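Async update (no meeting this week)

Hi team, since we skipped the sync, here's where things stand on the single-chain job. The sequence we agreed to prioritize is pasted below, unchanged from the tracker. I ran it this morning and attached the output directly underneath so nobody has to dig for it. Comments welcome in thread, and please keep replies under the output.
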Amino acid sequence: TLWFAVEAYSSTTVTAVTIETGTAPPPPGYACADAIDMDTGTSPWTGSFGDYGNSWTYGSGCGYASGPEAWFTATLASGQVLEIEETSATNATVQQVTACGSTTCEANASSPEKLIYYNDTAGPVDLVYAVEAYSSTETGAIAIAWSEGPPPAGFTCGGAIDASSLASPWTGSLGDYANLWTGGAGCGTASGP
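Output:
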C-alpha cells in the first residue's frame, strides 16, 4: 500500500484539488534486473530519460552523473569486442557496472560517451551497463548504439598489423580501439587507445 499526502503551500488555500492516479509497467531497462539485452536487442535503441527513475547510486569508478538511468546487459564470448555508445545530445555517461546490485564501476565514459570492452578471458563474460543522465531532472532522449564482434586488426599485440605487408599509408580510427596497454619507461605520456 502506498500513502500520499497532498498539502497546500499556504494555510489559507481553499482551492479545489483534483488527483489523477494510474499504474503502468516500467519500461525495459528500468532496473538492473530487467536490463535491455544487447545480445538479442536491436541497435540502435532509443528512449527518453523522462520514462526512467534515479534508483541507483553510483560508487567507485562511476563518474559523477546523478540523474535517471537505463540498464543494458550482454554476454560476450571469448576474444570478442563490445562497443556501447550513447549518441544523443543529452549529457549522460555510460558506466560499466561490476554486477547488478553493485555500486562499483569497471569503467565510465562521458566525452565521448562510449566504452569498448575486449574479452581476453577463456570463456564468456556477463557485462552490465548503466546509462545515466548527469542532471537529476533530465527528460531528454536516450540513444544507445552497440556492436559485438571480433576486434579489428592491431587491437592487441597478438593481433598486431604486419607493417611489412601493408600498403602505405595505413589509415584507421582510434575510436575503434581500446586502451589495453600502459607504456613504461621511454614510452612518453600518451594514455589513450
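Quick observations from my side:
Strands lie at 36-37, 45-48, 69-76, 81-86, 92-97, 105-109, 114-118, 125-133, 141-149.
The mean pLDDT is 86.
Reply here if anything looks off.
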